[in-house]
Amino acid sequence: MLIIGFSTVEDYLIKKYWEDNPGRLFMEVSVGNVRNRKRRIDAILIPGKENKVYDYNSNIKNEIAGQEIHIIEAKRQLGRNVVGQIEVGKYLVEIDFEPAKIKQVILCGKLHADLEEYCESQNIEVVQYDIEIGKQNQYNNYKTDTDESVNVRDIRNLPDTYKLRAFKKGWNDAVDGELYQSIKTKKTHANMGNLFGWIYDESPDEFKEKVWEQYIENNIKYFDKGWEMPEQK
Q: Cα separation of 233 and 218, whole Å?
């Protein structure tokens, strides 16, 4: 079981929705197989089950089959990309997991009037949560207006399970074609993962974790924050 941290804005949005809709939550669920590349759903929720959070695992089909579920995509702003992701995700989840019923949910911090209307016509629920600018440093990959005269800030914290998840999230977003604009202003684990994702593209989790370990080991000397490699469990 995992406790969702505040590593990314997307994590924050999912956590808020999960608090409002308790149940069994699966994060970063792989679906489909197009050209040997899996697609990902940000989260799948089985409402009404025990209130726990899980990383994706191979037994998820047995958990979801025959259940009423929510498939969840989270973005800072409602846009065409996330609408397409939720629609394709629904199609792939139906094929892969055979749930009894699917509710499509998009979580965002900023709305778009035309796309809201479209989502309503397609039975896609759009849920907005406030993202306060004053809290932006809580989220590793929060995109801010950039000032090229500002030095790049290194705000990376001690490596742990949540930072590894942020690193993988950044990598996965790069595979999906998203380059974080905040890499121009700050160094975070999510931003580093995003850059590695552009370099290596789709890769197994084992490879991402190996890159993570090497990245932490090679950068300890630069931060002087008393970093230690996390214990392997």
A: 21
